[in-house]
Amino acid sequence: MKHDTFFGFFKVEGKDQLVTGGRYRPFTLVMFAIERELFGEKPFAGHLINVLMFSLLIVLIFQTINTLLAKFPGVKNAGLIAFIAALLFAVHPVHTEVVANIKGRDEIMSMLFSMLTFYLVIRHADKGRIGYLLLAAISFFFGLLSKENTITFVLIIPLALFLFRSAKAARKISMLISILIPVVVFLIIRTSILGFDLGSQSMELMNNPFLKFINGQYIDFNMGEKMATIIFILGKYLQLLVFPHPLTHDYYPRHIDIMNFSDWPVLISLTMYAGLIWIAIRYLKKNKVISFGILFYLITLSIVSNIVFPIGTNMSERFIFMPSVGFTLLVAYFFDKWYNRQKILILLPSLLIFLAMSAKTIARNTVWKDDFTLFTTDVKTSVNSAKVLNAAGGSLIDRAKNEENHYLKAKYLQEAEVHLTKAIEIHPTYQNAYLLLGNAYYYQKKFEKAIEVFLHLTKILPEFEQGKQNLAVSYREAGKYLGEEKGDLRGSLKFLENAIQMLPEDYEANRLYGIANALSGNLKVALKHFQKCIELDPQNAGAYVNLGNTYFNMGDVAGGQAAHKKALELDPKILQSK
Hints:
By secondary structure, the protein is mainly alpha-helical. It has a domain at 7-365. 70% of the residues lie in helices and 1% in strands. The protein is built from 25 helices and 2 strands. Strands 1-2 form a two-stranded antiparallel sheet. It is elongated.
């Protein structure tokens, strides 16, 4: 409760602020903590709660739209419109990410509390009971604690009252105050924990997609590139709502490329949004449902558009979870209009669309089976996303480490190598991709390539300790491989010298370096490192055997006998295998 929500993800103080402005969403964290206490680490409970909350949200969407439109003279079939809107929201494939991903709970709860607040305020407008406002204030506060985009309902609710209710000004002011008080309280709490500073823009591509790599360093997009890319993304959201294919959980750079205003998709998107704004304004009096549906979509989308403030990523399907209610309301409204005129002509195509969307949603659910399935599936869609290429590479390496079939093991590692190489081509300073690519080479016993990758990693990120550690281990294992499997003693010594410099306190590095020197005739050097082995692991019988053998080879019989005697004390059978 005292940290940025991302603190638990990064684990390191300060890194939680890599995402501009920070995140404060304690309500869902409390839910997860309670679930863990009750059910342990079982994901089924989390998935079940997501489904239950989503189901409750669907009911609430129906109830809210029905209540909003029931007394509006311009609508005859409020119940049908509400039903179609809720049904479309329920089956729309673009919502799969939110429901199938346990982390999507913040989106569900934010939307649930926002719609509940909306419903309660409408009920107060109709009934005048103060209890509705008190409950609305509490609900709105919980929505804000779930996710910050709840705040867009500060505009949505007054807009709905202005368009669909004719309550007195005093009552409208009291309704507005009921949702402003929770906002003020939330902002005070949030500021006291995260501070007021929105923070500077990150220069890491995975936290700031509006960067480009020029002359060996990342620089910001120019304003034209940034705005054109944002407008293109807004058009992509419309496309996903109308035609939700292909779907992916990952839209990181460069799945969305750098766009310019000379690109025709940008111009089409700009034209569509200009048209939506024009229609929304033009129909404010003529057709309030159309205006409200469009404005609902635009207002709730604004906060995740990168226009109001940077959000740390290009786009995501979960970002249109809330705005899609405006879309489904519009579709339902036009369905009602056209259905009354041509029932058979409208009903059959509509039924086919609902069935197709349901099938797509079911198919998409299977992709969320586990990380391996998700990453290796979506990497085929997000072919230019450095992040999913990296994630797929990491999952393939993990799968390879536990794979007993040698053919499959090699196949997984080769695929990982391809994905990670491409991730680095897209993001030339991608720390984790270098680390994983080096690991992929390491597990394939391509030690020299692994060393090359880790050396480059330590050059571009000299403070990255894991890179140094993996480089040192690769030196050690390269030396072992060349000596034991290739019989290349000279090459083995070269790598082991580097390993011992980086791992002076590592038992295995000292043992291997000692053996390589003993075989090369450098007995004094070998003796020194076998003595170091004993210092590091005094109970290791093998270390005393190696020490004794070296003494014997140096002509020190007494020293050799003493060392072997100690070895036998530790392991009476040790010399039988030597």
